[in-house]
Each structure stands twice: as C-alpha cells, then as structure tokens.
Automatic annotation (TrEMBL):
Residues 559-598 form a coiled coil. Its main location: membrane. This is STAS domain-containing protein. The keyword Transmembrane applies. It comes from Oreochromis aureus (Israeli tilapia). It comes from the Eukaryota. It is a multi-pass membrane protein. InterPro entries: S04_transporter_CS, SLC26A/SulP_dom, SLC26A/SulP_fam, STAS_dom, STAS_dom_sf. The chain crosses the membrane at residues 93-118, 124-144, 173-200, 252-270, 282-302, 339-358, 370-389, 409-427, 471-496. It holds the Pfam family Sulfate_transp. Keywords: Coiled coil, Membrane, Transmembrane, Transmembrane helix.
Length: 715
C-alpha cells in the first residue's frame, strides 16, 4: 500500500465558547413536546397505514415479487434438506423438553409456518433448539415430576409411573410456558424493545450456550446409560444429578450404552466425511436421518426393547393435534421462565439473523423479529408446541444448499407435515439412546466455544471474565436463574469500568491544536501555567468523587491543604483585627474620644491588618481545563462536583474552564442549575484548543496587571 500523503491545513477563526457558538450556529431552542410526539405517532394516513401493514406482515411485500426462476430451485432443495434434518432433531430435542417425541415434530411445523409469514430474516432456520428445549425440560420436570404420577401396580406389586398422565401434564406445562414466552416477545416488540438484545453481549451468549450445552449433555446421560435418576431442581441441581448418575452407573443397561456409543462414533465419522465431501456434492448426506432409520430397523428386527430392555420412543400418533388454549392456571408459576425463554430465544435468533443479513446485504428488523417469534411461540403454544428459536446447524445447511428466502423454511415445514401425517409411526421402535447420541454430536460446535477462553485472554480479559462467569453461573444456577445472574454480572463489569476509567493530563503536540496524554507521548509538551485534565469515561454519581480525587492527585498539589491554610489565615486575620480594634477602642476611650462615632482615617490607621493574599505560589497553575469530550451525560451529583471544583480552585486563584462539551452535557448543566449570574456559558469552550488559547490570553493579561502593580509599588 502506498504511503498516505500528508496534507496540511490552516484555519483562522476566533476563540469560541458555547455562547459564541450558539450565536454563530444559531442553535435551535425549540423542542418537540411529549404531546406532539404522541400526536405524531398516532397520526394515520394512507401511505403510513400501507407501510405499517407491510412492516407487520412482511410476506405481503416480498412474496409478490418472488423471483421464481432465480430462487425456486435453491429454496426447494434447501427446504427438503432442512426438513429431513428437522425430523431427528425435533424428536431428539423433545426428549430434552421431557415431552413425547411427536411434539418435537409439531414444534418444527406450526412455528415455522408462522415465521414464514411474519419473519424478516431470509436465512435462519426456525425450529427446535437444544438450549431452549433444556430450559423447557427444567420447567416441565419441576411442575410435573415423576413422583406426582406414581401408582400401585397389582401385577408386579410395585409402584410404577403413570407415563401417559405424566406426559399429558408435561405437554400442558410446556404449552403454557411457550404461550407466555410468546406473549412476552410480542409485548416487547410492540413497545419497540428490540434493543434489549444489546444487553446480551457475544461473550455472554457464547458462555451461556456452552453452559446450557453441559446441562443438555447431563440431561441425556440417563438415556445413554439406561438408568432412572431422580430429578433435582434449583441451584446446584446439575452437580446433584451428576453425583446420582455416578452412583447409579452399576445399573447401566449394556444394550442401551452400546447403541449410544456406536451411534455417536458413527455420526462423528459420517459428519467428518460429509465435511470432506462438502465441496464435491451439492447436498450434504442426511446422516442423522440415515442413523435413525438404521437404528429403528435394527431395534425392530432384534426386538431390543423386549430382549435387552432398551428404552424406545414408543407410540407416535399420526396426524395433528387440535388447537387447545393453554391452561391459564399454570401461567402464574411460569412467568419468570417465560421471560427467560423469550429473551434467550430472541437473542439467539437475532444474533444469527444479523450475521446473514450483513453477509447478503439486507436488513433484519429487530422489533419485527420479536413479534414474529412471539407469534410463532404463542400460536405454537395453542397447538401444543414448545418454545423454538433458530439452530446454527440447520441454518448453515439451509444457506449452503441454496436457500435464499423464507420459502425454504416453509418447504421444510411441508416435509415435517408429510412425515407427521404418514410415516411418523414407523419410528416407534427407535431407541432413545440414539436420539441422545444425535444430541451429543450436534453439540460439538458449542463445545468448541471453549476455545473462546484463550482467544479472549489475549484480546480482552474483561470479556473473558464475562464468558467464564456466565458459564459457571449457568452451570450452578441452571439456565433460567443463571441467565439473569450473568446479565447482572455483565452490567456490573460495565459499571466497574466506568468507575475505574483512565485519568490523564494532556499536553500539546508541538505546532498543532492536538492534545494527547503526557504519559503516552514523548514529544507532547505541557502548556505553561495550564493543566488539561481528561477522564476516559462519562461522569456520574458512581465515579464523581473519584474524578475529583484524580484531579487533585494529578494536579500535583493538595487543594484541601491549600484551602485549609487559607481559612486558617483568614481566621487569624479576623482574630488579630478584633484584638487590634479592641486595643484602639480602649486607647481612644482613654483619650476622651467618643468611640460610638465613625472613626476617621487617622484612627483607622492605628489598626494593623494581616494580608491574606500574599505573593502567589509560582508552583500553582494559572488555569485548569477539564476536557469533557468523552462525557455523554451528567447527573446532578456530577454537576455538583464540577461546581465544587470551580469553587475550590477559584478560591486559590486557579480558573477552571470546561471544554468539548456535547449538547446533552450542556443541557444537563443548564437543567441542574450550573449556570447563574456569575457562571455563564462563557466558561464552556467548543474545543480544548479554544480553552487553552483563552486561558493563555487571560494569563497574559493577569501577568501584565501584576507587573503594573509591582511597578507602581516601587515607584
């Protein structure tokens, strides 16, 4: 790359403070009232109604212009590929949600169709997702535990679990929490709350999904080993579950374990082979579908359930379930879980959606995505689905196989519909351990996220701390409470960083109007008689006191001691004057002079005076410039701090001016009463250089006056 040509420029203008700037720029003082804003927002017109309708139902804007020749074939191939993928994943993730596998197929059908109508992302694949499923499973097992469905079996003379009643109750719980999460998403979308995802930073999301993946793996170990551990809930439940699984390992079903190990190894090998052939074949081999077909045939042929006690999927009813409104009596028990599901599901979907939108040059409406996901979940809850989001693996397949629009998602739903109506019952002999193996293999991308730790250690250790803390909190407190704790911890890191900013004294780059920290640049020089102070963070109640302390420390002198010494001198002067006045009064009284009348000049001269303002300390600066460029708002505590700084330093003869104030900061100063008859906007300057030039001029004038006074005294 050629060396950039250096250019020079010269600007000649007056020194500008905020008053002069307002006058020169003709600052607008009119502000739109809240009433006007509300009136404008509810105003209705034909074009606005059309725009609102097309924004709320995006399919009406893009489907009529759908380019069939360019996109139809790619969307068709992509839709079939993703639909085939949805079958094993839907059934496997239903186990995570602790509901029968067929409900995973329902969750891969209804919500996908709703998103096809209301969604704005062209590439994400909506459907079942491991993290969401394990969060649903935590709710269903908490509100419908096995212990509530124990009944006595007269044949075996033992207590057994009524699995039919238990599964029905768990489906009701899953539908209720899904419906509530959808309502939360719709509400947040309607109030334009799409920015809430900004509180889910990338390290937080990746640490959270990694921690949730560990929960997913532990929840599937019972299917891998063929054991039945008790369900634990609340903080540390993961540790209790692992300990109990270790205790039950001697009861492992060998047939189940062998089936799981063979499936896991086979899927890993097949996926590596798929990756090797990725550029040679247009469509990836559906290895998961092949795995469940082979496993189902073997289980049926060798009767693994009866001969070896291998747990299988069981009855898969054909057809679709009629819509049923969720049980409202459950809503109060799942509000917190519903909100957590709403935030996590939206955060994952919008993050992935923005990646592909940036890659292909289109816009994803964050608020409309909230509404689309909310409708998908709330309507899905009525059709007994559980909460959905987008899956990275399916989305990558949808994109790599040529999917260009939401039509690919709709076609994948058609494939699921075909499977649900006609061939779903063929998979009744599928071992659950095979579905657990599919889950393990699909989580390999989340396990690779552990590599974020060394990368973040090198780039940003605070982000690494957020990642690790989120991971640990998710493990120990479960995904729901862990998410809230992780967000709180992430916000605390932001607060701590604003509480501990970098404070710098600035100097001038020779022959420029640029000012840089003195401790970072060797050629930067301090302006004689002027201190320029800057904080790297905004100024508010949490760091206002530290700001003042840092200024006192960086300035090189103790303002508190100087003020204290001045007050002592003033007190000494008053005591001395009072003593002298008494002495003079006594002398006058002895001389027969009326002490009640006004003393004349000769009598006043008898009173000695102590000078409070002796010669100025040459080590003190003449002026201090506070660079407020990094500050974007001031609260009342910060304004009081600035007022105190001006007052304290002013008392020892050091003028304090502000520079680089943003409009919001000037408004905050004005609102908080910083300005008065003595303090005007003339102490605020547009740039640091303007402030320095003003201070230099003031210092020159002050020194001239001092020299004149000295000359007059000598004369």
């Amino acid at each position: 790359m050629a060396e950039r040509r250096r250019m020079s420029y010269s600007v000649h203008r007056e020194v500008l403070d905020e008053e002069a700037m307002d006058e020169m720029g003709q600052k607008s003082v009119s502000k739109t009232s809240l009433r006007e804003k509300v009136k404008k927002s509810v105003r209705c017109s034909g074009p606005r109604m059309k725009s609102c309708l097309l924004g709320t139902v995006p399919i009406m804007s893009w489907l009529p212009r759908y380019p069939i020749k360019e996109n139809a074939l790619g969307d068709l191939i992509s839709g079939i590929s993703v639909g085939i993928m949805q079958l094993p994943q839907g059934m496997a993730y239903a186990l995570l949600a602790s509901v029968p596998p067929v409900f995973g197929l329902y969750s891969s059908f209804y919500p996908v169709l709703i998103y096809f109508i209301f969604g704005t992302s062209k590439h994400i694949s909506l459907g079942t997702y491991a993290v969401m499923s394990v969060m649903i499973g935590g709710v269903t097992e908490r509100l419908a535990p096995d212990s509530d469905f124990m009944r006595w079996d007269n044949v075996t003379n033992a207590s057994i679990i009524d699995t039919v009643a238990r599964d029905e109750e768990r489906v009701r719980v899953a539908a209720a929490v899904t419906f509530i999460s959808g309502l939360f998403q719709i509400l947040l979308g309607l109030v334009q709350f799409g920015f809430v995802v900004t509180y889910l930073s990338e390290p937080l999301v990746r640490g959270y999904t990694t921690g949730a993946a560990i929960h997913v793996i532990v929840s599937q170990l019972k299917y891998t080993f063929g054991i039945s551990p008790e369900r634990h809930s609340g903080p540390l439940s993961l540790i209790y579950t692992v300990l109990e699984i270790c205790y039950l390992l001697p009861e492992t079903n060998i047939g189940t374990l062998v089936a799981s190990i063979i499936t896991t190894l086979g899927l890993i090998a097949a996926k590596e082979f798929n990756a090797f052939l990725g550029k040679r074949i247009p469509i990836p081999i559906p290895v998961e579908l092949v795995a469940i077909i082979i496993a189902t045939v073997i289980s049926w042929q060798f009767d693994l359930q009866q001969k070896y006690g291998v747990d299988v999927v069981g009855v898969i009813p054909s057809g679709l379930q009629p819509p049923v409104f969720p049980d409202a009596s459950i809503f109060g028990q799942v509000i917190g879980d519903g909100f957590a599901l709403a935030v996590v599901g939206y955060g994952i979907a919008i993050s992935l959606g923005r990646i592909f939108a940036l890659k292909y040059g289109y816009k994803v409406d964050s608020n409309q995505e909230l509404i689309a996901l909310g409708l998908s979940n709330s309507i899905g809850g009525i059709f007994q689905c559980f909460s959905v989001s987008c899956s990275m693996s399916r989305t990558m397949v949808q994109e790599s196989t040529g999917g260009k629009t939401q039509v690919a998602g709709a076609l994948s739903a058609v494939v699921i519909l075909f499977i649900t109506l006609w061939i779903g019952s063929l998979f009744e002999d599928l071992p659950k351990s095979v579905l657990a193996a599919i889950i393990y293999v699909n989580l390999h991308s989340m396990m690779k996220q552990f590599l974020d730790i060394p990368a973040l250690w090198k780039s940003n250790r605070v982000d690494m701390l957020v990642w690790v803390a989120t991971f640990i909190l998710t493990l120990l407190l479960n995904p729901d409470i862990g998410l809230a704790a992780a967000i709180g911890f992430s916000l605390l890191t932001v607060i701590f960083r604003t509480q501990l900013p970098k404070y710098s004294m600035l100097g001038q780059v020779p022959e420029t109007d640029i000012y840089k920290p003195l401790d970072e640049y060797h050629q930067v020089r301090q302006v004689p008689g002027i201190l320029i102070f800057r904080s790297s963070a905004t100024l508010y109640f949490a760091n206002a006191e530290m700001y003042q302390d840092a200024l006192n420390s960086k300035s090189g002198f103790d303002i508190t001691k100087l003020l204290s010494a001045k007050k002592k001198l003033e007190a000494k002067k008053k005591r001395h004057e009072k003593k002298e006045a008494k002495r003079v009064k006594k002398e006058l009284k002895q001389n027969g002079v009326d002490v009640n009348k006004e003393p004349n000049m000769e009598e006043q001269n008898h009173v000695s005076v102590i000078e409070v303002d002796p010669e100025r300390d040459p080590s003190l600066p003449r002026a201090i410039v506070l660079d407020l460029g990094p500050v974007n708002f001031l609260d009342t505590v910060a304004v009081k701090t600035l007022r105190s700084i001006r007052k304290d330093y002013g008392e020892i003869g050091v003028e304090v001016v502000l520079a680089g104030c943003q409009s919001s900061v000037v408004d905050n100063l004005q609102t908080a009463g910083f300005f008065n008859d003595k303090v005007t906007k003339s102490c605020l300057f547009t740039t640091v250089h303007d402030a320095v030039l003003y201070c230099q001029s003031a210092i020159t004038q002050s020194q001239s006056l001092e020299n004149e006074e000295i000359a007059a005294t000598h004369f």
